[in-house]
Amino acid sequence: MPSGARCGRLEVPENRDVPTTRTIKIPYVVVPARDAVKKPPLVFMGGGPGSGTIQLAFFFADLVRDRNVVLLEQRGGDRSDPDLDCPEADKRFADMFTHTEDPYAEADTVADAMQTCLKNFPGDPRGYTARNAALDLRDLRVALGYEHWSLYGLSWSTGVMAQLAALDPAGVDAVVLDSFSPPSVDFAQNGYDGLRTSLGPAAYADLTKAAAQLDAHPQAVPGHNPVTNEPRTYRLTGDDLVTLVHSAAYEVDLLPILPLLLHQLAAGKYGALNTLVAVGIGELVSHNLGQYWLMQCQDEVPYRTAGARHARPVIAWLAADDVVCGRLGLPRSPATTRAPVRFTQPTLVLAGAQDPITPAATADSASAGLPHRQFVEFAGIGHAVVLSSRCGRTVVTAWLDGRSLEQCQGEPPYQVVGPSDLHLTSRLAATATGGYLPMVPAALFVVLVVGWILGWIVHAVVRRRVRLWNVLPALAGLLFLGSFGALLWSEYDVLPARLLLGVPHLAPWTGVLLVATLPWWTKARSWWSAAAGLVWLGGLAWFTVVVVLPS
């Protein structure tokens, strides 16, 4: 926690509509202002539902140094009492990608796990709604003694903050809606529309082509279940690919590589699937899914349109929503909670131009009726503007301070990667994330070079004799490691995700240093030299397959 932060637990009714309901406890953190001049506090709640909140205490404390920052965890979320997490449902959700059936059929086992978790839950699931989360925030303001404060909502919690601004008008002086998810709009349809917008026409066409190919010929990809870390073989269909790409499009540093990645997949080059599986499935189960489904099954899923439910190809987690919620049988929230947002406080609406789940156009139109609204769209940004964009953070602080907004939103943080920007080989990233065994030849090569250099130095110091011929291959190996590492670092420093698809064009040519030493090995006679030569050839073969050969 930041220096001086104060932690506490808010006790609130579990279901405010039932007088005899039990009390639940929700953790919160108050970070005092760091500057002398204090302004009204800023309160934040995470998105999801099911995403954590308190872990962003440092981030928001640095964002607004002249205000107290208050962070309230979501009811039923991580660290709260009760915690609605359902690990078995998380595990089975990740395992959906190991099968090739329709996602609606694959989700049956997830629904079974959620039913079991709900059956064993001792509380009242009807209390876990966005409206109750808004009232939790109101109760926290009163408990902390604040006359009024400013609100920061992110994704799902933008709906919570919109409700709070209407429910507690005297206690709210300003509202920031980042990646606005309007309660009046079909969330699932937003997902499908947002994916098209995020990728653009050409990349989306490549996605649908690659998805059709995977439907005809599913691809087996080795990996691990991120919940249990058990090894898995994922068998990817077109629906799985669409789901993983949609998940990847949330990340601002993956957006620039998605068009090239999809172009490669559409051409039948599936090497990048390994990394896409590791990133995408990990993101999908990074939330508290038990809490997510208890809330969504009441507030949002019952109001989805039939068109969004039966879209093809399918975004698997949206299909799982329908199956799980159909089985849990929870009551839908009142239709009044789905009304267009209406409040009068000054409002800043932030939108990423490539947001795959809360599209900018939807956020703009749904908030247009707010009387004191400023809408800012950021080029090259996906979901969660404040977390993804330095410009976005500048705009937020300027708006909260009443200053004119900096005009930086038209500049994307990264340039889109094209096929001429890299030597295309996805094997390096796949090998680096594929466990220890694929890295053994490279590791042995590094140990050989470093050990050889160190041994030569010790020999030179002790015997005071230096024979460069004896260490020539090691010096070439060291030069190779340094130049290859420097090239990779230069690429990483620009955008780490570029290395998922390839390496700098000069990187394969560093292997010339390894080839140039081969005549030296023909003159070696000792058993040690023979063993070292085998390690050297193994390293050269590894470099040729993983880096030099396109994939």
UniProtKB/TrEMBL annotation:
Keywords: Hydrolase, Membrane, Transmembrane, Transmembrane helix. GO terms for molecular function: hydrolase activity. SUPFAM superfamilies: alpha/beta-Hydrolases (SSF53474). Signal peptide: none annotated. Residues 322-402 form the Peptidase S33 tripeptidyl aminopeptidase-like C-terminal domain. The chain crosses the membrane at residues 436-457, 469-489, 501-521, 528-549. Gene3D superfamilies: alpha/beta hydrolase. InterPro entries: AB_hydrolase_1, AB_hydrolase_fold, Pept_S33_TAP-like_C. Residues 40-184 form the AB hydrolase-1 domain. This is Alpha/beta hydrolase. It comes from Kribbella speibonae.
